[in-house]
Amino acid sequence: MIPIPNLPSDSLYKFTFIGGLLVVIVCVFLYQTDRNDEIEHEMVFATTTLREADRNRYLDTLYIRRYDRIDSMFNASTDPKEKKELEIRLMDLSDKLSQLGDAKGDFDIIEQIHKNYHSQKTESVWVLFLIGGIAFGAAAFGWFMWSKQQKVQDAFVNKQYELQETEVEMRKLELEQKIKELQTPQ
User: CB within 8 A of 142, min separation 6: which ones?
Assistant: First the structure.
């Protein structure tokens, strides 16, 4: 089993730096994951939903043009038999045209859902950037304070080391003197 390292609790600033750095890394990972999901959503929207809605809107436009053309032919016609036939075709098209409003409404609903999706994504990205920014600030503050504090601690440790070296030298000298005293005949 892999041993879990101890948290650096010897210095609060070091802990703040490492914790902030980890939160920034998590935020970057979450942003990348969110961006990949958004790209996938865009692909699905562009290849299926949007294409279907555009096709329906195009067909609606064709029905309107066809209705206008048959209506102008109906108005220009003088033959009663042809007028009757055109009137039947106009009735069929008017039924289809009455359903067109629903297709346009469906397209508007699809566009609204897409806009809502993007606004929610934008909000989540801003929240992620806010958390990441605060964590980065905490990491920078922790680094600054830790490095400042560490210089003092390093200087203190160096002074202690020098003091110990001097004590060792003093003891060596004392031992050398005692050895000389013991070696000299009285």
Answer: 13, 14, 15, 16, 17, 18, 19, 20
Q: What is the pLDDT of residues 57-93, one digit of tens each?
A: 666 677 777 778 878 877 887 888 888 888 887 787 7
Integer CA distances (angstroms), 123 to 38, 130, 152, in order: 13, 10, 44
Q: Which residue carries 């089993």 as its tokens?
A: 1
CA distance 155 to 161: 10
For 113-151, the DSSP string reads HHHHHHHHHHHHHHHHHHHHHHHHHHHHHHHHHHHHHHH
Residue-wise pLDDT tens digits, 94-134: 777 666 655 555 556 666 766 777 777 777 778 888 888 88
DSSP 8-state class, residue 6: P
CA distance 147 to 150: 5
Q: Is the pLDDT of residue 45 over 60?
A: yes
Would you say 17 and 142 are in contact if contact means Cβ atoms under 8 Å apart?
Answer: yes
Cα(41)–Cα(108) distance, integer angstroms: 18
Which residues, 6+ apart, have CB-to-CB distance to 57 below 8 Å?
103, 104, 107
What pTM was estimated for this model as a whole? 0.43
